[in-house]
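Per your request, structure below.
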């Protein structure tokens, strides 16, 4: 069975480079150069489906709409960018009430207004399947360029914002995209690599390692585990497992050189959000988890679509 990321890699190999495409498939967003001044524009898109990313039967449609936008804003933040505008496409189940579209859109517009993002348009359709929402977000780098997954270097310190492991308790619907934190990070620090935690540390850190050709050690004792994860931990899945593997926390994971890390640790917050050091970048290509002084492989167990 082909995995989602294996398919993405196959698709990536089919795409030819173009002068206007500075950064293509393989990061949280593409960077496209527009106009005679070659201005960089970030472009990202996410498709959310009923019974996969949300449960329409038991969830407030406003929260579903909010999430569909928030995951895209998180991708822009993960590039060290600011969001400018979005377009939204809905595929409604045939016979769905018009009020559903209004409620979904209300959730999107409310979050867009909160972050000063223009809702520029989109498309609507209907079919016999479940509700599908696709959002495309446009943004621009806050600095002179976007922050990619490929810049991590041996000796870097790994950080995450916020707390991890609360998504299954409902935070996947209510999380705040870390746009303000990304701005504070880019404006004050030389960031080597950056990603958002959509699939969990055990999966998303691997993207940075692969793109940067490095390894990593994550220290279990340093993971900021949320109260929700601690409350839901049990015999089958510990609070640490929830924090490492559940995904949909949408916190930022980033790496800084040692000197920059020391500056951040002197006041470990970004835009008021706590930041935690969780490990370091090493040579090689493997991800390791340090548990009670011993290293064990950090295996990818986060969310991944199977095709």
């Amino acid at each position: 069975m082909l995995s989602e990321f294996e398919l993405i890699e196959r698709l990536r190999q089919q795409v030819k480079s173009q002068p206007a495409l500075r950064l293509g498939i393989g990061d949280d967003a593409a960077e496209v150069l527009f106009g005679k001044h070659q201005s960089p524009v970030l472009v990202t898109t996410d498709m959310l489906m009923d019974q996969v990313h949300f449960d329409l039967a038991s969830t407030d449609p406003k929260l579903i709409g909010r999430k569909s936008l928030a995951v895209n804003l998180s991708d822009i933040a993960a590039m060290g960018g600011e969001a400018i505008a979005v377009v939204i496409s809905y595929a409604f189940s045939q016979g769905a009430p018009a009020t559903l579209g209004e409620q979904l859109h209300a959730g999107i517009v409310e979050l867009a207004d909160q972050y000063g993002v223009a809702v520029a348009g989109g498309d609507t359709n209907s079919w016999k399947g479940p509700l599908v929402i696709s959002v495309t977000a446009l943004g621009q780098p806050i600095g002179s360029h976007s922050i990619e997954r490929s810049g991590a270097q041996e000796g870097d310190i790994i950080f995450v914002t916020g707390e991890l492991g609360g998504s299954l308790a409902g935070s996947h619907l209510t999380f705040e995209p870390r746009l303000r934190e990304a701005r504070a990070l880019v404006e004050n620090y030389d960031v080597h690599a950056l990603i958002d935690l959509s699939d969990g540390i055990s999966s998303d850190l691997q993207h940075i390692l692969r793109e940067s050709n490095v390894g990593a050690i994550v220290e279990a004792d340093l993971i900021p585990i949320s109260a929700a994860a601690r409350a839901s931990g049990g015999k089958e899945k510990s609070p640490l497992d929830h924090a490492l593997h559940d995904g949909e926390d949408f916190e930022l994971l980033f790496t800084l050189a040692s000197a920059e890390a020391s500056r951040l640790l002197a006041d470990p917050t970004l835009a008021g959000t706590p930041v935690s050091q969780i490990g370091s970048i090493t040579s090689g290509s493997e991800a390791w988890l340090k548990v009670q002084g011993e290293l064990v492989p950090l295996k990818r167990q986060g969310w991944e679509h199977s095709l």
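The chain has a mean pLDDT of 93.

Regards,
D.
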